[in-house]
Each structure stands twice: as C-alpha cells, then as structure tokens.
C-alpha cells in the first residue's frame, strides 16, 4: 500500500475526523456524518465524478450490516472504492495513492460556524451600565460581574437589618452619650 509515514498521517486524519463534533467518540470508529465531512473537507467530493450520494453509498457498502460506523480498515476500503471514480485517468494503484494523499494529515475545518452577533440590540442588552434594580447589584463599576456575591444573599450576623445604612454606629453613639 503506502509507506509507514503516510499510513500514520492517514490514521491521524481518520482519528481527527472520528472525534469531530462528538465528545464521547474514542477515535476508533467514524460515523456517516463525519465520513461525509471528511470527503467534503479533503476534496474527495468534486461534484462531477464523486458526489455526496456516491460517498453515502460507499459508506453503506463497507460498513457491517448492523453497524452505524466504520473502522479504520473499512475506511481504507472505502477510500480504495472511491479512488478509481475520483481519479479516472489513473491506474487503480495510482488512484489509491492519490486519494490517500488528499486525506493525509488533514483535519476538520470549521467554515461557516456561527459567529457572534454584533447588532445594536445585543449591545444594548449586554450594556451593564444601563441595568437597573437588583440586576445592577450583580456588577461592579467597571461592568465586570461580581460572581457569587452578586447573586446570593450573603448572611451577615451583625444584628442589623440587611442594607441598613448606619450599621456599626451603635457603639460610637453610646460612647458619645456617656
């Protein structure tokens, strides 16, 4: 097939696509969605010779009947099935090498990922200087959140009613009267 360094790069690409978007994935199996993403990101799907339908058909053909994922060996077989279709002018071995070169060392791209909204409405809603009432208490003067002390009523066992302005002045009053 290929040299060991190329096989390592192919395995690395397989593992990166296998864990993409799935926190529970181990990297040993590739699901159909990530297989289609791999084919799209590595430009195996060219729109003329190989389409997304072809990719789905090959995935169904190489996987086990009851399984919903493919292993690394099945992944290699799938690439070998797509190679002659993608590289029509080459021999089968050259086509397989060419398709492996497309995949080697690649990782999933994040093109078209949702961006942060930058509209006036969002700015207005997140401007902490305009907050009123109890929400205002959750932020300091610079607009940074106070964290837990801004959210929770922290009990002070001073004997005074909460938010009493003259707390702690009793002792000084009593001394002044004597």
TrEMBL record:
Cellular compartments per GO CC: microtubule
MF terms (GO), sorted A to Z: tubulin binding
Signal peptide: none
Location in the cell: Cytoplasm, Cytoskeleton
Record keywords, A-Z: Cytoplasm, Cytoskeleton, Microtubule
Coiled coil: none
Record-linked InterPro entries: EF-hand-dom_pair, TPP/p25
Biased composition (Basic and acidic residues): 134-154
Segments for region (Disordered): 129-154
Domain of life: Eukaryota
PANTHER family documented for this protein: P25 ALPHA-RELATED, TUBULIN POLYMERIZATION-PROMOTING PROTEIN FAMILY MEMBER 3
Protein name: Tubulin polymerization-promoting protein family member 3
Organism the protein comes from: Lates calcarifer
